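Sequence in, structure out. Go.
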Amino acid sequence: HRTCWKLRLNNPDASGAYGVAFIWVDSGSGSIMRMEGYDRQGKLIKRYEIISGMKVGEGWMLKQMRIESFDADSKKRTGRTYLELEK
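Output:
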């Protein structure tokens, strides 16, 4: 586990799917580790989570990320996608 800052971002208007998003940022690297998007009623609808990274030169970049979609009313997961990058 990594030490992270948790940021709350409020959508100032009615545009877009999210009313609020929470973003976890690694306090050491400044990398985004997780994001959760909530609708205007405060119900979770999307989650992005970094599973692993890979060293590229002197830095790090995304290797695997999980993306999950949720039904706001039932709170059930409706989809799961994995993104994986190769060197």
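Check: The mean pLDDT is 92. The chain is about 0% helix and 60% strand.
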